[in-house]
Amino acid sequence: MTYEVVYSPLARRHLAELQAYISQRADSDIADRYVDAVIDHCEDLNLFPYRGTQRDDLRQGLRTISYRKRTVIAFIVDEDASRVLILAVTHGGQDYETIFTEEESNN
């Protein structure tokens, strides 16, 4: 079975911020290559969506994987819709856990 990989608005914003951050510190080609590689890593979830670490303590069904030990990708698998929803993409020690803790307290 192949899953569709879908990006939340927050994940899209995180990717754009990551690209801008790297561009400021290196150059835009390096930033583009890094962000493209992160996206490729996310897209690989289409075949193996249950990789990574389960984080039900933050949100039911939440899983995380890392890319090059610097970027954390948080996602859920929607088995009914055959899709993987990328919820957040954090980099360089950003606190992704707070995103889900704050989300819970707002519900």
Task: Summarize the structure in words.
The chain is α+β, with helices and mostly antiparallel strands. The chain has one domain (4-106): YaeB-like fold. The protein contains 3 helices and 5 strands. The protein has helices at residues 9-25, 28-43, 96-106, and strands spanning 4-7, 53-54, 62-67, 71-78, 83-91. The chain has a 5-stranded mixed β-sheet with strand order 1-5-4-3-2. β4 and β5 form a beta hairpin. The longest helix is centred in the first third of the chain and has 17 residues, at 9-25. It is globular, with a radius of gyration of 14 Å. The model has no long low-confidence stretch (mean pLDDT 91).
Write the layout of secondary structure elements.
Layout: E1 4-7, H1 9-25, H2 28-43, E2 53-54, E3 62-67, E4 71-78, E5 83-91, H3 96-106
Parallel strand pairs: 1-5
Antiparallel strand pairs: 2-3, 3-4, 4-5
Helix pairs in contact: 1-2
Can you say what the CATH homologous superfamily is? RelE-like
H/E element order: EHHEEEEH
* Mean pLDDT over the residues: 91
Proportion of beta-strand residues: 25-35%
* Count of β-strands: 5
**CATH topology title:** YaeB-like fold
Can you tell me the CATH class? Alpha Beta
| Global Rg | 14 Å
First-to-last CA distance: 33 Å
* Parts with pLDDT < 50 across at least 5 consecutive residues: none
Largest sheet: 5 strands, mixed
Count of helical regions: 3
Helix proportion range: 40-55%
The coarse overall form would be globular
